[in-house]
Request: fold
Amino acid sequence: MTFLDMLRAAERQNDSMLCVGLDPEPAKFPAAMKGDATKIYDFCAAIVEATADLVIAWKPQIAYFAAHRAEDQLEKLVAHMRRVSPQVPVILDAKRGDIGSTAEQYAKEAFERYGADAVTLSPFMGFDSIQPYLKYHGKGAFLLCRTSNPGGDDLQAQRLASVPGEPLLYEHIARLTQGPWNTNGQLGLVVGATYPAEIERVRAVAPTVPLLIPGVGAQGGDAAATVKAGWRASGGETTAPIVVNSSRAVLYASQGADYAAAARQVARQTRDQLQAARGV
Reply:
């Protein structure tokens, strides 16, 4: 199955658009493991088991593992995801952006070492920084487009006078992703839930590509507005999937021994809010 096949299948099977982001911070772990970086796998594995039937995707953020020399735990975690919920795709949140042989090594890291189904990338070095990832048949890549941080305006909201129609930079990235860059049909875009109007604009420019949407939960993005702006369907079937990420609100729903059960409760509530917002 390709990444898009997996995404659609997980959406149907789990009736979900929710992605749980795995950003483990040992300082925020429950008391029994607090501050212990060797427990990253144990903490994340419990979250995976508790929410496996509620998600459309998993999104481990590589920096949270690498900062604690826990890359081996990340490999082990992805293998655990495959055993627990093999139908759910894994998106490695790495935001890589380089060219040539370096990009080839980053692609190898994402798809061969960690076994991810998709990866997040920065497109600002151009298409040749994306190409090495597209050589992996069936794998996906989400390009940063309109991110959820306020500083995104510094570049993403600037007009491109040299491009016909003078689009904003993020609109131009969306057009390239919908069109000439999407040579294998596996590209998607990262757009923040904190900017629903911009999500709607991206969806108008890129009507069929999947959107990875962070910012619901701790960052304050509105679930209903996010779905209205980005999700599209015909006859009750999804035509333009969205992957709505929540990390901290799920991971740290409780500081007690019941953290996994609390994570499941928050994940279920968020999943149900997103599904209800479809209005179908």
